[in-house]
């Protein structure tokens, strides 16, 4: 087949297998015929600034060929056309119907992530509409007017005002159509001033809007009017195909304008397993960008990006980039009073734990973790080296530094900090039970300094025939009641810690063999033991004797003695899983009578 070189805006596109991007039928077309009899439909009314690409997986721009060979050998297969779902078609029809109904000379484009994901063959419900000649709120009013004329009800709409203090620089209109939220914003250009994170914005051209975006792969448009893809940076598709993370404008200027773009570059690189451009990495690691990220971006926005990295499909790659680009200490900022002070290379140690945990929870058959359990398991592993690090608050109280990272460095939920700290505390206790749970023997537990163990010993004195496994059941049961449905996460974390137990954690852990196969085997053995002991969901088991009954039998009026009895009775209940409430009360009466005789 003859290859046709088609020049568009000074860019040569070699067309071997033309991609047919067919716009809605109301537009007039010119038709170009090829010898292969394939047709390439081109809308007549195409703007001079419009750069529409019809491409195949073999497309190469002349400008980018040499750079491709130097940058990356990764080849990403793209869809030959954007496949519109039925729901998306209905939505786009309503938007175009609004143009006709209101006689609007307006171009509507889907911007950014939706176009990228569609070309990669991924589903996307992130539809952002960029409008060329009016604000999003204005178009929203027109759309509601059109829907009302059709007798269709609006499922929901809102306008989110600008709020620069919360890093919200642009008014955004939103509407729910066909159970899908759509954002509407105007095309814009941005200009940042030195030491300001708030840009000056005005209406922009499609090209200006494309170049102001964070990455070339996020700068693509899908023009709903013409049904065509627009690559106005002239490299978005090329970088997408080559698996490269590149900024449309020089990286340092892009990052200094909005330093959050550094974290977005890392997140998308990790998400798609794309390579970060060498210039981008060099500028991202610069002192200027690190300072700007710490000073210009709110901690909440930083935390949102980190959460998306940890919750994504490439958390290890993301944290590796944070460490290598010297951004780890910026995003996970420590208080100056931290003791012991973290080392400069603490990011590599944290990454080693994270990588091991990621490998474990990805193992087929190694338990089923919910999204929340998975997320917090990775955080627990990531911050495991800091489990004993504390700082003094304003009142001089020693607080776990992990609490500061979650609540102040990342502005995450208090419950996230509490859960991860609880996992760390439980991990230390789990370590002392691992051998016994593997051997199903409690002989190794006598030296533990646990109050609960004293309660069990008082029971075993009166019942010499109580099985040895009841000791394991009691201690493990109390532990699981504290950590609840995160016990599997705590077990995995303790097994990780057991591998490096006794080694100096400030050494180069990248060379440490976590013996993951052995850890998987240990985990499955211990999980089986816990389930055999009937302890899975033990936290849901209600006490056989309630507080009112304790006060009545022990003749108490309140106070800490009730708590002490609750611990004793729960110990009995765990030691005798088949015991009844009456048997438990009888035992309580015997203990009370014995105490009265000794007194």
Account of the 3D structure:
It is built from 25 helices and 17 strands. It is an alpha+beta fold and 599 residues long. Mean pLDDT is 83; it is low at 1-72 and 505-509.
Number of strands: 17
Shape: elongated
Strand order of the largest sheet: 7-8-9-6-5-12-13
Low-confidence stretches: 1-72, 505-509
- Rg (C-alpha, Å): 31 Å
What is the count of DSSP helices, taking H or I runs of 4+ residues? 25
Taking the sheet with the most strands, its summary is:
7 strands, mixed
SS-derived structural category: alpha+beta
* Strand content range: 5-15%
Question: Helicity, in percent?
Answer: 40-55%
Domain Poly A polymerase head: 108-245
Family: Belongs to the tRNA nucleotidyltransferase/poly(A) polymerase family.
GO molecular function: ATP:3'-cytidine-cytidine-tRNA adenylyltransferase activity; CC tRNA cytidylyltransferase activity; RNA binding
Protein name: Poly A polymerase head domain-containing protein
List the main descriptive attributes of the protein structure presented here:
599 residues; alpha+beta; seven-stranded mixed beta sheet; two-stranded antiparallel ribbon; disordered N terminus
Give a concise summary.
The protein has 25 helices and 17 strands. With 599 residues, it is an alpha+beta fold.
Question: What's the SSE blueprint?
Answer:
Elements lengths: L3 E5 L2 E5 L13 E5 L5 E5 L21 H7 L14 H16 L6 E4 L1 H7 L7 E5 L4 H14 L7 E4 L11 E6 L2 E7 L1 E4 L8 E4 L2 H6 L9 E3 L4 E3 L5 H7 L1 E2 L5 H7 L2 H13 L2 E2 L1 H7 L2 H10 L2 H13 L3 H10 L3 H4 L14 H16 L9 H12 L7 E3 L5 E3 H9 L4 H18 L2 H6 L11 H12 L6 H15 L3 H13 L16 H17 L14 H8 L5 H16 L5 H18 L1
Helix pairs in contact: 2-4, 8-11, 8-12, 12-14, 14-15, 15-17, 15-21, 16-17, 17-20, 17-21, 19-24, 20-24, 21-22
